[in-house]
């Protein structure tokens, strides 16, 4: 009997989840999803579906062996947990794909494939006496790995490493950006202090200008009063002068 390696399935699921999240992030930003990413996600989901099929078949075989008393209930429960976990992870991936046309098609094809999986027999149907016979009649089955699963896992491991390197580069750039922002903040504080000092000087200058304006206003008023007084006195002097000239002329010609 062939079965898949749980660590490899876990790595494949983690890589696929990362791709799905990256795709969802791109779509949320209004960017088109990468065709290569879509193909890799679909390929990984097919591999996970195939793994679920194999794990389900393995669970049914273990149920049969447990009924015959050749293995214990513990192995059956472990196989059942593995099938349940993988199917749950697969359902979560399908749910996170989104609602666009491509995601709907992938979800539909995967659901059709999952419908072909034969329902596993519940653990409760296995007789309890198999636990006692497990130590003497347990069979060991060789583990066989599929080349496509191994290849997909290697691809996803490289992809995860690449994404990790990109995240580290982004962290380094963010650190540099944070240091630059800190310097800008320090300069802004210094500029703010300088502006406050200049503001105080401008306020003092404004007060001085206001006082000077008041003094100029008073001087202007005094000048206006002097001008009016001089104009009034000039008229009186002119009248007096004319009278004196008239009197003189009368005295001369009399």
Walk me through what this model shows:
By secondary structure, the chain is mainly α. The chain has a domain at 6-176. It has six helices and no strands. It has helices spanning 6-28, 35-67, 73-96, 101-115, 130-137, 147-253. α1 packs antiparallel against α2. The radius of gyration is 48 Å and the shape is rod-shaped. Mean pLDDT is 77; it is low at 116-147. Its main location: membrane.
Provide keyphrases for this structure.
single chain; 254 residues; mainly alpha; 6 helices; 83% helix; 0% strand
**Secondary structure: helix percent:** over 70%
Q: What best-fitting shape do the alpha-carbon axes yield? A: rod-shaped
Order of helices and strands: HHHHHH
Radius of gyration: 48 Å
Tell me the β content: under 5%
Secondary structure tally: strands = 0
Largest sheet: none
How widely separated are the two ends?
163 Å
Determine the mean pLDDT.
Answer: 77
**Residue runs with pLDDT of under 50 for 5 or more positions:** 116-147
Question: Count of DSSP helices?
Answer: 6
Which structural class fits the helix and strand makeup?
A: mainly alpha
């Amino acid at each position: 009997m062939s079965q898949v390696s749980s660590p490899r399935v876990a790595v494949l699921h983690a890589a696929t989840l990362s791709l799905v999240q990256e795709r969802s992030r791109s779509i949320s930003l209004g960017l088109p999803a990468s065709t290569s990413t879509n193909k890799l996600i679909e390929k990984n989901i097919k591999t996970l579906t195939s793994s679920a099929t194999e794990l389900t078949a393995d669970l049914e075989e273990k149920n049969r062996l447990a009924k015959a008393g050749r293995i214990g209930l513990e192995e059956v429960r472990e196989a059942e947990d593995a099938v349940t976990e993988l199917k749950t992870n697969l359902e979560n991936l399908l749910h996170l794909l989104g609602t666009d046309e491509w995601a709907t098609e992938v979800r539909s094809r995967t659901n059709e494939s999952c419908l072909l999986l034969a329902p596993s027999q519940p653990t409760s149907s296995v007789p309890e006496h198999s636990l006692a016979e497990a130590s003497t009649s347990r069979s060991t089955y060789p583990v066989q790995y599929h080349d496509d699963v191994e290849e997909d896992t290697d691809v996803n491991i490289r992809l995860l490493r690449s994404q990790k390197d990109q995240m580290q580069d982004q962290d380094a750039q963010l650190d540099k950006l944070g240091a630059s922002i800190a310097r800008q903040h320090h300069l802004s504080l210094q500029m703010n202090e300088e502006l406050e000092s200049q503001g105080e000087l401008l306020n003092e200058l404004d007060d001085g200008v206001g006082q000077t304006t008041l003094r100029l206003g008073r001087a202007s008023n005094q000048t206006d009063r002097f001008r009016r007084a001089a104009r009034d006195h000039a008229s009186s002097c002119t009248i007096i002068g004319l009278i004196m000239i008239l009197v003189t002329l009368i005295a001369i010609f009399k």
